[in-house]
Specification:
Layout lengths: L1 E3 L10 E7 L6 H9 L6 E7 L6 H11 L3 E5 L6 H10 L5 E4 L5 E2 L3 H11 L3 E5 L2 E3 L18 H10 L10 E3 H4 L12 H12 L1 E4 L5 E3 L9 H6 L3 H5 L3 H10 L5 H28 L2 H13 L1
Parallel strand pairs: 2-3, 2-5, 3-4, 7-10, 8-11
Antiparallel strand pairs: 1-4, 5-9, 6-11, 7-9
């Protein structure tokens, strides 16, 4: 692991931003510019380069030489995406933390808006701004970034009732709460959802009216390949979200039975739909199946 530009100053920034990156040269400059141009300047930017093979390293070193807030770490070998996300959190020092992907863009006032909110609302564990994909629209339901401000049980129910994209994952988060999440480094499908669920279980989550986040749409989460990446054994094929199911059950042991049944049913449908979707995708992309279909049609 090689690190450059580690400041020797005693000052601990208010915010830590963690950017795990692998081969991000096409979008990295825009993402870095949007972060370094924030109106709230008291932050550190921790970049963990997962042994990129493109121009990512040179871009990161260029920016690190120009801005002392950047701490650039280059891994000597690819450690995997999940570990890389955990590494930037482990390096964080600020009261607040957020992950920033190498293809995401934030408005210049994003940190200012959300730091101010968390400073004045200690019962909230996270805050974010309206979020959309670079090819989509702002919508708190479809983007999964709606505020969760009710009591604990209703927050958890609303979390599952607005089950779409996971815009809340890239919120500004209280670091001490996030570090208490025992499965940040776990490698399973929907671990990012489980992290947000953990946060909602510990406090309220806010969506402000000001600022914005634009997420890159070309990531793994928007690809059917995500099922293959997280598939380790047969149960991952038949019940893709079984680990999320386990995490949910451990959190919901004390909530009323009707709420548990409601959430369990949502998870059952989620697993069933994911199994069907990946099966169809698998069959459609098998050459042997195409040959059989063509042979059958010829015989007709």
């Amino acid at each position: 692991m090689i690190e450059v530009n580690r400041t020797l100053e005693m000052h601990i920034p208010k915010v830590s931003v963690g950017m795990p990156v692998y081969n991000g040269e096409d979008t990295l400059r825009c993402a870095l510019n949007s972060l370094l141009g924030q109106s709230f300047a008291d932050f550190e930017l921790i970049i963990s380069d997962n042994a990129s093979t493109d121009g990512t390293e040179s871009i990161c070193r260029e920016y690190a030489e120009q801005d002392r807030r950047i701490r650039y770490v280059r891994q000597s070998k690819n450690v995997g995406a999940v570990t890389n996300f955990k590494l930037v959190l482990d390096e964080a020092r600020g009261d607040y933390f957020m992950w920033a992907a190498h293809d995401d863009i934030r408005s210049a006032d994003y940190l200012e808006v959300n730091v101010s909110f968390l400073d004045h609302n200690p019962d909230f564990v996270a805050s974010t701004s309206p979020t959309r994909f670079d090819n989509g629209k702002f919508n708190e339901v479809s983007m999964g970034d709606a505020s969760l401000e009710a009591n604990r049980i209703n927050r958890l129910i609303k979390f599952f009732d607005t089950w779409h994209a996971n815009g809340r994952f890239y919120s500004l988060i209280r670091r001490d709460v996030l570090e208490g999440c025992g499965f940040v480094s776990d490698h399973f499908l929907a671990a990012d959802w489980a992290i947000v669920l953990f946060l909602a279980n510990h406090g309220k989550m806010h969506r402000d009216k000001e600022g914005y986040v634009v997420l890159g749409s070309q990531g793994l989460s928007n690809s059917m390949d995500i099922f293959r990446v997280f598939r380790k054994n047969a149960i991952d094929y038949f019940l893709p979200f079984h680990n999320l199911f386990k995490v949910t059950l451990t959190m919901f042991g004390d909530i009323p039975l009707p709420a548990r049944i409601h959430i369990t049913w949502i998870l059952v449908k989620l697993n069933y739909n994911a199994h069907i979707i990946q099966t169809i995708f698998y069959l459609r992309n098998k050459k042997w199946l195409v040959r059989i279909v063509r042979l059958f049609r010829r015989k007709k």
